[in-house]
Design a protein that fits this description.
Structural class of chain B: alpha/beta
Bound molecules: thiamine diphosphate
Mean pLDDT of chain B: 95
Strand order of the largest sheet of chain B: 1-7-8-4-3-2
Radius of gyration of chain B: 22 Å
Structural class of chain A: alpha/beta
Strand order of the largest sheet of chain A: 2-1-3-4-6-5-10
Oligomer: heterodimer
Distance between the termini of chain A: 39 Å
Number of helices of chain B: 14
Strand content of chain B: 5-15%
Largest sheet of chain B: 6 strands, parallel
Helix content of chain A: 25-40%
Mean pLDDT of chain A: 97
């Protein structure tokens, strides 16, 4: 997937001379995950910018560059380091379009490798999506497959709005075919990945794989799970989830982020409102505990895995 | 001390770095800074340097063997760390980054306590109050503000003046680009806080050379914030000790902040996940090897200490023991229990979290019934 994102960035740089890549270590090193590997060599320092070490600086200058007609794609090195830029993102980037009554656009993309499961130290495994989905004016997306990543990064770059692009870092090394001929779904649409009849599982980013694994295990036990990859967290494609829940009658949402006040809570509320009479069970959520992301040696107990997901499925079916 | 006081009026010492010991291990005089170190003291510094390096080598090896999740090597930075760490008194406080392993050792943080966070069993592992060595901070620059606030606390507690204490805040050259560090400089200056900012300029911020962060020598930045900056040869343990001691003394006495820029070099990788061959010229590393901070002290001891052979043998033995203790200790470290993560999130009881913990416990218990 890391390579697919790199290929998507490359295409965006080729297609539009206004596209810029910027961040700490994105040049010579190709980023700590090598996503931007080779771009400096081919596009030069004016377009692939190794920035000084400052996240507020990265996003703040990207806002200015965007106001000048550029399309900066910023890399934040790890999830836990986006917070120094938080003010720039939520106070300026997210609001300029509205504040200018639409006369200014700030098409900045913020790439953040996010989530856990790679045995990292503190601040390298967080899922900060809810901070951004709670902010009007931002779009928040997360691909789950290399193909989606390749296309979605290009869609994010061509989008006129600021986009927080969450890259599931523990899936960076995942491989799959790239379909570079036919463009897939629009950026804001959820995708039905696996049809099923008894319980809908809504996942995104790193947990889509977990949901598919759970569905495979469940099938051996004679259970039929439907898996939806949300892809976009803001806006949320509630219609797609609603359609599924009307068929299955049950919904389990799974994400790595803290369950409390999270994306799952939003989806649960909306689905409950829309499909109250079709629901056979309350919408259940599986995800992180309301604790700081724990040390690596216990992260398996924090991260939602197949067992935790199936436990929730069993609970949903027991109603 | 008077001799030193005049230095601060000049605000900057440079462009040459303060040096008291040449790379060949010869003592040299500096007009403003001096240290009075006996042969016994030198032996102590040599021991500190060697133990710090051994811990580093051992931890790097343990990471390679999969026993540690990550390790940021301090190879080459030992003099900057031991010199500054030894300049602290028991009443001072240090706010480290994530690489101050040598300082940790001299502050009395046990090597195994230190390795807990790199093993992935803890986010800290030592007692910051007992050691005066605060927790490692991975978020670049954040600790410089904490250090400044702590120093403001000392001020308010009447701890500035005779018999005062001070705060030593560590940061890297890359960190100077973070907004938080500029704010720390502004605050420290405005409050005249007893804090010394100790920047280890090791040439790189991961793949980015110092030139990417600054167009002027970093110590000169202090002037713009209204306090003195000093550049010191960071591979010269005596010079680092002298300069940091003087800066801390000034802060303790109410003279306000100082920025010390210790020019050193990160001979290893940024962390064990990093591949410096992608961005760094091997010749550069070779050139710095010739400035090795430990060899320098060894050469001086060779001149001044007739008992050198015994000292080397004794330190070697101690280093071997340290390595052994670290190897066994790290492997024997138990993983935290699955429910431990709920324990210290809040200082006061939290109903919602207690409930989550109970549910998690019940979930875990359901497995035991099955198997
Ligand atoms: C706020 C923040 N952004 C990014 C990072 C990722 N990161 C870790 S170390 C580092 C380079 C730090 O360089 P420097 O301050 O010179 O210290 P050094 O590691 O060289 O001692 C970066 C970018 C981080 N830890 N925190």
């Amino acid at each position: 997937m890391a390579r697919a994102i790199g290929m998507g960035l490359r295409r965006a740089l080729e297609d539009d001379p206004k596209t810029l890549v910027m961040g700490e270590d994105v040049g010579q090193l190709g980023g700590v995950f090598r996503v931007t590997d080779g771009l400096l060599k081919d596009f030069g320092e004016a377009r692939v910018i190794d920035t000084p070490l400052g996240e507020a600086g990265i996003i703040g200058t990207a806002v200015g560059l965007a106001l000048r007609g550029y399309r900066p794609v910023c890399e934040i090195q790890f999830d836990g380091f986006v917070y120094p830029a938080f003010d720039q993102i939520v106070s300026s980037l997210a609001k300029l379009h509205a504040r200018s009554r639409g006369s200014l656009t700030v098409p900045v993309v913020i790439r953040i490798p996010f989530g856990g499961g790679i045995g990292a130290v503190e601040h390298h495994s967080e899922s900060p999506e809810a901070y951004f989905t709670h902010t009007p004016g931002l779009r928040v997306v997360s691909p789950a497959t290399p193909n989606d990543a390749y296309w979605m990064i290009q869609q994010a770059i061509s989008c006129a709005d600021p986009v927080v692009f969450l890259e599931p870092k523990r899936r960076y090394w995942e491989k799959s075919e790239l379909d570079i001929e036919s463009e897939p779904l629009p950026m804001g649409a959820a995708r039905l990945v696996l049809p099923g009849s008894q319980v809908t599982i809504a996942a995104y980013g790193p947990t889509v794989r977990t949901a598919l694994d759970a569905a495979a295990t469940a099938r051996e036990e004679g259970l039929s799970l439907e898996v939806i990859d949300l892809r976009s967290l803001s806006p949320l494609d509630v219609d797609a989830v609603e359609a599924s829940v009307r068929r299955t009658g049950r919904l389990v949402v799974v994400h790595e982020a803290v369950v409390a006040h999270g994306v799952g809570a939003e989806l649960a509320a909306q689905i409950t409102e829309r499909c109250f009479h079709s629901l056979e069970a309350p919408v259940l959520r599986v995800g992180g505990a309301a604790v700081p992301y724990p040390p690596a040696r216990v992260e398996e107990h924090y991260l939602p895995d197949v067992d935790r997901l199936l436990h929730a499925v069993d609970r949903a079916l027991a109603y | 001390m008077e001799q030193v006081a005049s230095v601060w009026d000049g605000a900057e010492v440079g462009p040459e770095a303060v040096q008291l010991l040449t790379p060949q291990g010869r003592r040299v005089e500096h007009p403003s800074f001096a240290v009075d170190v006996s042969v016994q003291d030198l032996r102590g510094l040599y021991r500190d340097l060697v133990l710090a390096r051994r811990l580093d080598t051992e931890a790097t090896a343990l990471q390679r063997q999969g026993e540690l999740g990550l390790w940021p090597p301090a190879l080459g930075q030992e003099a900057a760390q031991i010199g500054s760490g030894r300049a602290l008194t028991a009443a001072d406080h240090a706010f480290p980054t994530y690489r101050e392993h040598g300082v940790a050792l001299v502050r009395g943080v046990g090597p195994l306590e230190l390795l807990r966070m790199f093993r992935g069993v803890d986010h800290g592992g030592w007692d910051p109050v007992a050691t005066g060595f605060h927790l490692y901070t991975i978020v670049i620059g954040a600790q410089t503000l904490h250090a400044t606030g702590y120093a403001m606390g000392l001020q308010r507690d009447g701890r500035v003046g005779d018999d005062g204490s001070a705060v030593l805040a560590y940061l890297g050259d890359g960190a100077t680009s973070e907004g938080a560090v500029s704010e720390a400089f502004v605050w420290a200056a405005a409050m005249n806080a007893p804090v010394v900012f100790f920047c280890q300029n090791n040439g790189w911020a991961i793949s980015e050379p110092t030139a990417k962060q600054t167009r002027i020598p970093l110590y000169q930045r202090a002037r713009g914030f209204g306090f003195p900056g000093i550049r010191v040869d960071g591979n010269d343990v005596l010079a680092v000790l002298a300069v940091t001691r003087a800066a801390l003394a000034r802060a303790r006495e109410g003279g306000g902040p100082v920025l010390v820029e210790a020019v050193t070099y990160r001979m290893g990788a940024h962390t064990t996940s990093d591949d410096p061959t992608r961005y760094r010229d091997p010749d550069e590393v070779a050139a710095w090897k010739a400035r090795d901070p430990i060899a320098r002290v060894a050469a001086l001891l060779g001149r001044e200490d007739p008992g050198l052979a015994e000292v080397v043998a004794e330190v070697e033995r101690e280093a071997g023991e340290l390595a052994e203790r670290v190897r066994h200790g790290v492997r024997a470290m138990p993983d935290p229990g699955p429910l431990d993560m709920y324990d210290s999130v809040y200082a006061e009881p939290n109903v919602a979290l207690a409930r989550e913990r109970d549910e998690h416990a019940a979930y875990l218990a359901s497995f035991e019934e099955v198997s």
